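step=encode ok
step=design start
structure_in=
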């Protein structure tokens, strides 16, 4: 994975239980807290979902390797980020939004890119609408004889909570200059109506027709 807060939302964080010192319990506490719809929305509005997601992956790997102290320190860093975005005035949301808007506006359609990119660089990239709506992240790419056929977006969740997947025809995407963000011109409400994707469905002609027609009509 690759997070301007109303006062009412901040209460979600202040009411959260004190985190235990054990790394596993800290991560579980963070996942429970971010599973709350208001808290999740807060993280997204602050544009911090990428940072939280990357830190989470590192902490999980450290825990798996048995490095409990390093994992705990990463968990503490995530708690600090969540606390910061929940405190009015600590995040310059206007500046972030201006910078983000400029990045999205300058994105180039993928079929017009002059430079090549590695698939590994695209996997995990965030996907936004041109209006700065967070749509999800690239979970997979479907390769055809002609090249990349679809970009599979994992959406609707954070840290594995409530994820769903849709596959979007690759030519519908644009890419920012840094290659870290893809832009998809689709309404965030409408994208939830797209045909769901599961591994192997790209071989199904009926599914391909439905998916292609959905995004062609948008």
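sequence_out=
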């Amino acid at each position: 994975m690759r997070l301007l807060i109303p006062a009412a939302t901040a209460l979600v964080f202040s009411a959260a239980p004190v985190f235990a010192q054990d790394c596993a319990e800290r991560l579980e506490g963070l996942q429970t807290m971010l599973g709350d719809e208001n808290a999740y929305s807060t993280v997204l509005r602050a544009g911090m979902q990428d940072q939280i997601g990357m830190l989470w992956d590192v902490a999980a790997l450290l825990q798996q390797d048995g490095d409990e102290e390093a994992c705990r320190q990463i968990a503490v860093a995530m708690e600090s980020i969540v606390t910061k975005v929940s405190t009015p005035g600590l995040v310059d949301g206007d500046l972030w939004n201006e910078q983000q808007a400029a990045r999205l506006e300058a994105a180039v359609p993928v079929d017009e890119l002059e430079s090549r990119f590695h698939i590994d660089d695209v996997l995990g990239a965030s996907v936004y609408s041109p209006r700065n709506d967070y749509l999800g992240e690239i979970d997979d790419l479907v390769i055809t004889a002609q090249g990349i056929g679809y970009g599979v977006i994992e959406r609707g969740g954070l840290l594995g909570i409530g994820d769903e997947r849709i596959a979007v025809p690759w030519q519908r995407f644009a890419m920012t200059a840094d290659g870290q963000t893809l832009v998809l011109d689709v309404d965030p409400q409408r994208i939830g109506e797209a045909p769901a994707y599961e591994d192997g469905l790209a071989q199904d002609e009926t599914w391909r027709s439905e998916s292609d027609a959905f995004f062609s009509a948008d």
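step=design ok
step=annotate ok -> The longest strand covers residues 134-144.
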